[in-house]
Structure prediction request, 275 residues.
Amino acid sequence: MSNFLQRTLTGALFLVIMIGGIVWSYWSMLLLFFIISMLGLSEFYKLAGIAGIHPQKWLGMAIGAVIFFLAAADARLNMYFVFMLGFPFIITLFFAELYRNSPTPFQNIAFGLLGIIYVLLPFAAWTSYLFPGNGIYNPHILLGFFFILWTNDTGAYIVGSPLGKHKLWERISPKKSWEGFIGGMAFSLAVAYLISHYFTDLSPALWIMLGFIISIFGTLGDLVKSMFKRSINIKDSGNILPGHGGILDRFDGLLLSTPFVLALLYIVNWVKQMM
Prediction:
């Protein structure tokens, strides 16, 4: 099978699973994001191992699972109660390191926590934000987020491949260009405006703002992931998606754009409640 055909088939299956899982129900989205976050966390710990650091993979994933479902329950439980439940689980990473006799306990604990913060929390944050407190699950904002994110990547490639002359961050990602970045943003803003006519949960102005945020921080997320990979001389974070690499390769933009997207949405909701 040619690499192009492999990439096409994997990409098509990926889209079907992602869109289907998000649209079907809150619980299918929850399961989908849980699986993705666990696979991504496993990949991150594997990359740390290649770098010579050995976080406690299984304990970190178990703690991550607890935090993920506590975040999903945040809409039902008091936020401080959820935090107090989750904090002791995180502390167990420190205690467990006592039994390992490792020469790098600082790094092991730090990367165990970093994996949870970097990989798992963005997915958990979406499950908390989208919890159907009124019994009605609305996938529009999450779908719009992904459509804009995917369009940014596609637009950057379409514009950057033939026109890219000025390097965006050559030390980290030699193929990325300012032309591609601007092209990706233009495509993202166009799709954000188009989405606003169908997903009317948010105003057109807010969708456009999200387009800017997703384009900027999605691109930075890609660069951060490239920085990690370049530091350990690997091409892909994994091989679970034939022709596309690993989970971190596919969701790098989500990981660093989600905090800013949700921060804006929470601020807008708070302002509306205050008015």
